[in-house]
């Protein structure tokens, strides 16, 4: 989901893309689900070993040659965890998609980043910081971890190592795109495996194991998997096809187990927001205001499956602990009483796609809008949600909040 970088025209101006990722390149969106959760597990293990030759674009020489120097906490600055490793989709992407082909969802052009320091469009699908940034800040980091694909041999980590962000807009649990327009979850794990190998060369196995066991693994994934089903309904006027959510959750479980095998122990999981309330969905309804509950029901079913999934994993895998952040519930609480949270608009976009200077400018009251574009929240919405998940009321996290999670031994 999200926008694509506007293509340059002969006159040097940007060609304006259409409003929705799904409607913009429908012919390039192919379904290629593995035939079983076991196949996904096999694929994730192959990816971790580097056996997959189809993802050459993820194995750039600059990334392979990256040098990691882990120095621990900066002098006089204490963080709650030694590092954060981020996986998922555009809600947490801090710039990985900048390095993908131009037809990938991208946000490295104005007005994206208008409220980021220096008004810099960094590749975040936001007017400023996103949820990955605020969770990192809540844990004492000055900045969230860098995008994996931004690392190159010329970058030496002479300051504090904060972790790495592997998230990619458009990514799913399943491999749902064949055009290299995103980095699926299984390939994000492969990239993490490359990072582990480089860190182990610097730290040794024992020190690395301790660092990973204490680090936070932040994950937000699944929205794209469900959205593809919705996109088919909108494009072909079909009824929603039966979506095999147990299968999708089994695939999710297989990838989490792969991360556990690589050393992950503390998982901060952000569930799926109400899909039927996103502006791209609302604008397809007659009144452009109401949410589509039939679409939200997919998100609710998926979210309901996350709890037993991680409960079972924690009982089966020694040392695994988790916190599930209920982004669905937090979003609904805001939608039911927006003014209590400081919002005056929870229905429409602040920046109308394609969100460029060649188009109309974004809204002035950005702190009072929940949605920045057709899919993603404003900086303020991300900040409030991150605060609720880190140390907020119990109704938005289970079984513990992120602050308690990282203190668990």
TrEMBL record:
Pfam families: Lipase_GDSL (PF00657). The keyword Manganese does not apply. Keywords: Hydrolase, Lipid degradation, Lipid metabolism. One of its GO terms (biological process) is lipid catabolic process. The keyword Cell inner membrane does not apply. GO terms for molecular function: hydrolase activity, acting on ester bonds. Belongs to the 'GDSL' lipolytic enzyme family. PANTHER family: GDSL LIPASE/ACYLHYDROLASE FAMILY PROTEIN (AFU_ORTHOLOGUE AFUA_4G14700) (PTHR45648), OS02G0292600 PROTEIN (PTHR45648:SF104). This is GDSL esterase/lipase.
